[in-house]
Amino acid sequence: MADNDDIPFNRDFPLKPGVVDEARPGVRRVLCNNPSPFTFTGTVSYIVGQGNVAIIDPGPDDEAHAKALLDAVRGETVTHILVTHTHRDHSPNTARITAATGAPVYAEGPHRASRPRFESEKHSPESGADRDFRPDIQVKNGDVIEGQGWALEAVATPGHTANHLAFAWPERKINFVGDHVMGWSTSIVAPPDGSMIDYMASLARLEAREEDLYFSGHGPEIPEGPRYVRFLTRHRQAREASILHRLAKGEADIPTLVRAIYIGIDPRLTNAAGFSVLAHLEDLVARGIVATDSDPVIGGTYRLAS
């Protein structure tokens, strides 16, 4: 959601789809042609190393992008495929890259929700999750994946999805942060897929690390990563304060809160904004600050807890 002035967003990302760009020595990136209000100019896939390489996030089910990635590594050996999370703009192309290279796939695990679905919630099959994805090797926080000339540490960053991982390259002070941190916009946190409680804890985990150059799933790289994370944290705290400020005037449903908080939002993002507000409310209900009559769901009505 790109409606805030407090974060130093950078929307300058001239990379064209299919072009191989060496962003840093040992880090190449290729943009997929899947622009949207949620993906910015498209999904960015990364190639780590030289000769024997890893591919991070092969992208959506897109034959042209798979071909561009395979062309980029022609004459090299793909030894690892790493996936940050299982949204359909990041993981489905894994099958094509695996078929072409035989490389094993590393990820946290299959797609899952951050919490059990409430009875009163309607199942939303079009949620954008890649439910067919299964990694060959499941990795957890702190696991190190080693290749020729590089070693990437898995950093658990749940929040955007329950199975979200960043891949840190401590030796180079680089972190491939997937969709947890983006330079062009804030991340969507939409329950039950996402969790604001987890998201905030994951921001703190990244901020405490040494890596200061972030490569994101969408948009340009982010210098001074931990400083940028502090902006994101403050933004979410301000969003929470705005919700509480509106609820201080009386109980409200989520569409009312969205209208009060997201002034001038792109109408295409209104639904996502509602889920982001729900993520905050879920956190506030869990902490006993806000009350609702049943489970905290998108159709609920909320008030300050007495």
From TrEMBL:
Report the SUPFAM superfamilies cross-referenced here. Metallo-hydrolase/oxidoreductase
- GO molecular function terms attached to this record: hydrolase activity
Looking at the record, the residues that make up the Metallo-beta-lactamase domain are 41-218
The taxonomy runs: Bacteria, Pseudomonadati, Pseudomonadota, Alphaproteobacteria, Hyphomicrobiales
- Which PANTHER family has this protein been placed in? ENDORIBONUCLEASE LACTB2 (PTHR23131)
Transmembrane regions: none
Entry protein name: MBL fold metallo-hydrolase
Q: Region annotation Disordered: residue ranges?
A: 106-134
